[in-house]
Amino acid sequence: MFANASLRHPRLSMLVLAAALVAVPGCKKKGKGTAGPQQSQEEIENKIKAAKVTAKAASLVDLANKDLESGRYVSASRRAHEALEADPKDADAYAVLGAALWRAGDFAGSTDAYRKGVELNPKNFGAVLGLERNLQAAGQHKEAADMQD
């Protein structure tokens, strides 16, 4: 079951693995050797909370992408907004939002969403490609060409 889930949602499975590894306490040896790194219960709980937030946003982005594939851009936009409520720094959520807004005919909103995605992660392929397309369509060829460098 988990093997299939990790193939469909690689980001989610990596986050689950990271959360599991964070929860493992540091090693203590008696006698020879040194004690491993120790984390406080609060640090562990904070890391788990962060992993849950990231996982929630990733799940919503995956659902939004499926909505886009099915032509449900309104639902995709709603899910992208929910993902951004969970994690305002998720560049993938901005990329999906940009695509959904573009399909809804909101080209200015789409461009803004793509820009935010690129600001958060300049290597986010979906956000970069969408922004370049929007800039080309708006006649801003120089800015679009500069992004390719």
Q: For this entry, what is the oligomeric state of its chains?
A: single chain
Q: Largest sheet at a glance?
A: none
- Helicity level: over 70%
Question: Into which percentage range does the β-strand content fall?
Answer: under 5%
Order of helices and strands: HHHHHHHH
Q: How many beta-strand elements?
A: 0
What is the rounded distance between the termini? 42 Å
Query: Which class of secondary structure composition applies to the elements?
Result: mainly alpha
Low-confidence stretches: 1-7
> In one word, what is the shape?
flat
Individual helix count:
8
Rounded to an integer in angstroms, the radius of gyration calculated over CA atoms is 20 Å
Q: Give the rounded overall mean pLDDT.
A: 83
Explained architecture:
This protein starts with a helix and ends with a helix. The chain has 149 residues and is an all-alpha fold. Helix 7 (125-137) packs antiparallel against helix 8. The chain has helices at 2-8, 10-23, 41-69, 73-86, 91-103, 107-120, 125-137, 141-147.
Keywords:
149 residues; mainly alpha; flat
List the helices and strands and how they pair.
Elements: H1 2-8, H2 10-23, H3 41-69, H4 73-86, H5 91-103, H6 107-120, H7 125-137, H8 141-147
Summary, kept brief:
The chain has 149 residues and is mainly alpha-helical. 74% of the residues lie in helices and 0% in strands. Helix 1 (2-8) packs across helix 2 (10-23) and helix 4 (73-86) packs antiparallel against helix 5.
